[in-house]
Amino acid sequence: MPDTALPPIAILGAGSMGGAILQGLVASGAASAGVVVTNRTAAKADVHAGLEGVTSVALEADAEGNRAAAAGAGIVLIGVKPAMVPALLREIGPVLRPGAIVVSLAAGVTIATFEQILGPQAIVVRSMPNTPAVVGRAVTGLAAGTRATPETMALVRALFETVGAVVEVPESQIDALSTISGSGPAYVFLLIEELTKAALGKGFEEDEARLMAEQTFIGAAALLAASGEDPAELRRRVTSPKGTTERAIAVLQEAHLDDVFARATDAALARARELAAGA
């Protein structure tokens, strides 16, 4: 159980990310005050129906489901697609309880948009979790709205710590954070893909190539987590002077990976700003 007791929670739009957070809440025991989740269809609602302490609502059967869920919650997570956010906020705004915290899971929707629609008394926090939330290993960025207090942020941090690590940043850094932790899993998967291809090129069977590449990344990450060492130091320990790894690292460094990653994340940041501007 977390040290910070969480109030009743509503997750409006429990898709892949909202569903992952729900699983983390239930597994951690942090949802003892109850969670109400909503989805459009009965089929999606049924996925969460058997979870302890969870009420799963299908909007096709209960058109007032979002309003009822929001009215009973101390923290309301907005998990619908970004284009659907304004309409949902207008729907639930009038029924929010005083002091309720509204947390955005929607990429590209600003705190200003939330506060403008919900009104000047709204307590808003913007979040940016990543997909490892589904296995409890997320990195979530949190940005405080204009009325969010340290107590607000402690509650929201406790919620997201049920699915991983949390970084608090100003909203101006949320898009930049998304280019590192948000998009980052895709970069890792791409590197695993390419190392697998290299193994295939060396004559290994596909199952052997995948096992070697995937388990090497998983093992290296586990070693990094367990050791607490700087990754550069761990790399040096693997890289014997005049050995095979040193030769391979030299080739990788000649490819200027620092510049490649800087340009890749710059490109992602430019696109995030385009999306925020409606492009």
UniProtKB/TrEMBL annotation:
Compartment(s) of residence: Cytoplasm
EC number of this enzyme: 1.5.1.2
Pathway this chain belongs to: Amino-acid biosynthesis; L-proline biosynthesis; L-proline from L-glutamate 5-semialdehyde: step 1/1
One Gene Ontology cellular component annotation held by this UniProt entry: cytoplasm
Gene3D superfamilies reported in the protein's UniProt record: NAD(P)-binding Rossmann-like Domain (3.40.50.720), ProC C-terminal domain-like (1.10.3730.10)
MF term (GO), any: pyrroline-5-carboxylate reductase activity
Enzyme class: oxidoreductase
Range of residues in the leader sequence: none
Protein name listed in UniProt: Pyrroline-5-carboxylate reductase
GO biological process: L-proline biosynthetic process
Residue span, Pyrroline-5-carboxylate reductase dimerisation domain: 171-275
HAMAP family per the UniProt record, alphabetical: P5C_reductase
Binding, NADP(+): 12-17
Entry function: Catalyzes the reduction of 1-pyrroline-5-carboxylate (PCA) to L-proline.
Family: Belongs to the pyrroline-5-carboxylate reductase family.
Domain Pyrroline-5-carboxylate reductase catalytic N-terminal: 9-108
Source lineage: Bacteria, Bacillati, Actinomycetota, Actinomycetes, Micrococcales
Positions of NADPH binding: 66
Keyword Acyltransferase: no
One Pfam assignment: P5CR_dimer
Organism: Microbacterium thalassium
Catalysed conversion reaction: L-proline + NADP(+) = (S)-1-pyrroline-5-carboxylate + NADPH + 2 H(+); L-proline + NAD(+) = (S)-1-pyrroline-5-carboxylate + NADH + 2 H(+)
Predominant localisation class: cytoplasm
Keywords: Amino-acid biosynthesis, Cytoplasm, NADP, Oxidoreductase, Proline biosynthesis
